[in-house]
Amino acid sequence: MQTLFPVGPVLPEGFTLIPDFLTEGEEQHLMDEVSKVALHPMRFQGYEAKRKVASFGYDWSFEKRSLSKGKEIPSEFFFLIQKVGRKLSLEPDRFVELLVTEYPIGSVINWHRDAPPFGLIAGISLFSDCTFRLRPYEKSKQGRSSIISFPLKRRSLYTMDGEARSAWEHSISPMKAVRYSITLRTVKEQISRYMKTH
Predict the structure, then answer these.
(1) Is the pLDDT of residue 45 over 70?
(2) Strand 97-103 to strand 157-160: parallel, antiparallel, or no bridges (unpaired)?
(3) Longest CA span, the chain
């Protein structure tokens, strides 16, 4: 009698993982465009992280705790926004921010939830794999056994919405190779209405 085991970890409701979302050619095209982007060190509450970033569209300021319009999203990334939108049945203009990130060897992302005004988060992994981790946001539910850890492969797409977005936080283990990512974010409905009228 054959026993069937789950293929992968049980992920929180609202978290989706789509391997091989990009073709090798699409990944190379994005890497070519990313190489043209001027990246700068990520700064968070006075601390300079090891990773480098460039944000386009609406950006969240941790110091001012406000959302503001920044540089226009480069047209070279429109095909990616459209492809993600089709996959998620979302209009492309729902994505109001595009964030490019470079992760050098040894860099990490500590446990966090994304900035409060943002809604759905869509991340595209480029150039190398990483180890992605999830755990409950509520302190009383945290513990070693509550951490969900799994490989996030290059060319994959992950999304966080609903419970995965609000009741869980995430991190990335120290990088063993240089990695890049492109993160797309929507904003919550009430904030979206405000942005359209101001």
Answers:
(1) no
(2) unpaired
(3) 64
Task: Answer whether residue 10 is part of any domain.
Answer: no
Say if CB 53 and CB 110 are below 8 A apart.
Answer: no
Segments forming the whole domain that contains residue 189: 20-197
Question: Is 105 inside a domain boundary?
Answer: yes
How many C-beta neighbours within 10 Å does residue 131 have?
14
Report CA-CA distances (Å) from 115 to 24, 73, 83, 171, 187: 31, 19, 24, 14, 10
Nearest residue to 20 via CA among 181, 149, 157? 157
> What residues have CB less than 8 Å from 96, skipping those under 6 apart?
57, 58, 185, 186, 187, 192, 195
- Model confidence pTM above 0.70: yes
Q: Cα(153)–Cα(128) distance, rounded to whole angstroms?
A: 7
Name the DSSP class of 63.
T
Q: Within 10 Å of residue 186's Cβ, how many Cβ atoms?
A: 22
pLDDT over 70 (residue 51):
yes
- How many residues can be counted in the chain? 198
**Single-letter code of the amino acid located at 165:** R
For 55-98, what is each residue's pLDDT tens digit?
999 876 655 566 668 899 999 999 999 999 999 999 999 999 99
Instruction: Give CA–CA dist 32/52, Å, rounded.
Output: 17
Structural domains in the chain (count): 1
| Helices and strands of the chain, counted as H and E runs | 4, 12
